[in-house]
């Protein structure tokens, strides 16, 4: 498999605090890859450096052979990378349908037209995405009133509206009940498979990580201390010591 995303010697500091330390990383086209690590390890920062929400101090990020450093987030979305955020990021007062519709309109670059009922824009595309994430029957509900798990599903539909080839999910099951977690992960797995997506995700729930990741990278104090198959990572002595050891006590 070829590398879809190649990251080389990436550094990021916040006022002298090093959050990303010389990270070199390759994501293969089509793989499902988890980035794990304790709270504050630098997972979200790593995602922000990929998606243009943060600019690295040093190093390169290349997606399908194209250098991403310095590009604004909306440009990176257009190149085929979509993400969800650790905190819910939807329009709470709009309906579920409208949230997805707005995302499709934003992506297609279509303007609201005075002579065309807004409702008809991307009607079919919106419907398809809602069905894909299992929200078709909630289309007319106010987004902010959905359960937490369903709001995360809505975020996923919004991310998919940009037709990404690479999907970044930052803790897709955080705050979910075990049942919601199971449903969300099953749905993510189906969607990734159906659309042939490459998936990079962070997650604290190890049953989720080891349940779906084909490869895992471990971040610790901003540094990748291990990267490989679930078995290799599970048995890595340094991972056991610094990561699993910390969790066993926390
Ligand atoms: N904008 C910022 N300014 C200052 N420090 C920051 C900023 N963003 C992140 N940090 C610090 O960088 C470190 C890594 O944070 P980050 O959010 O990337 O960790 P994380 O692995 O995503 O943690 P969690 O599992 O809690 O989500 C933390 O110590 C955090 O306080
Ligand atoms: Mg985080």
Write structural notes for this entry.
By secondary structure, the chain is of the alpha/beta class. The protein folds into two domains: 1-80 and 164-250, P-loop containing nucleotide triphosphate hydrolases (Rossmann fold), CATH 3.40.50.300; 88-163, no CATH class. The protein is 38% helix and 25% strand. The chain contains nine helices and ten strands. The chain has helices spanning 43-51, 73-79, 96-108, 123-132, 148-160, 178-195, 206-212, 230-234, 237-249, and strands at residues 3-14, 17-28, 32-36, 58-63, 66-67, 81-84, 166-170, 198-202, 215-220, 223-228. It has a six-stranded mixed beta sheet, with helices on both faces. The protein has a four-stranded antiparallel beta sheet with strand order 2-1-4-5, covered by helices on one side. Helix 6 (178-195) links the parallel strand 7 and strand 8 (198-202). The N and C termini lie far apart (38 Å). The relative contact order is 0.18. The mean pLDDT is 91. The structure holds adenosine-5'-triphosphate and magnesium ion. Residues 14, 17, 19, 37, 39-45, 86 line the site of adenosine-5'-triphosphate (ATP).
Which features would summarize this protein structure in a list?
250 residues; Rossmann fold; 2 domains; 4-stranded antiparallel β-sheet; 10 strands; binds adenosine-5'-triphosphate; binds magnesium ion
Summarize the structure.
This protein is α/β, with parallel strands linked by helices and 250 residues long. The chain is built from nine helices and ten strands.
């Amino acid at each position: 498999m070829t590398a879809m995303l190649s990251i080389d010697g990436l550094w990021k500091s916040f006022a002298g605090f090093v959050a990303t330390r010389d990270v070199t990383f390759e994501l293969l086209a089509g793989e499902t890859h988890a980035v794990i690590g304790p709270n504050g390890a630098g997972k979200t920062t790593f995602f922000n450096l990929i998606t243009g929400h943060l600019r690295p101090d040093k190093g390169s990020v290349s997606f399908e052979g194209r250098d991403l450093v310095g590009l604004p987030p909306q440009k990176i979305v257009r190149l085929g990378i979509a993400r969800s955020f650790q905190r819910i990021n939807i329009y709470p007062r709009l309906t579920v349908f409208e949230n997805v519709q707005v995302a499709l309109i934003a992506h297609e670059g279509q303007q609201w037209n005075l002579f065309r009922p807004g409702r008809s824009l991307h009607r079919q595309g919106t419907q398809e995405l809602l069905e894909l994430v299992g929200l078709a029957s909630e289309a007319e509900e106010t987004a902010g009133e959905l359960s937490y798990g369903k709001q995360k599903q809505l975020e996923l539909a919004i991310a998919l509206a940009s037709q990404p080839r690479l999907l970044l999910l930052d803790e897709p099951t955080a705050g979910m009940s075990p049942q919601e977690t199971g449903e969300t992960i099953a749905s993510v797995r189906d969607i990734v498979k159906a659309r042939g997506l490459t998936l990079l995700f962070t997650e604290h729930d190890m049953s989720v990580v080891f349940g779906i990741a084909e490869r895992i990278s471990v971040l610790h104090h901003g540094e990748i201390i291990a990267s490989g198959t679930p078995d290799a990572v599970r048995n890595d002595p340094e991972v056991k010591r610094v990561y699993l050891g910390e969790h066993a006590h926390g």
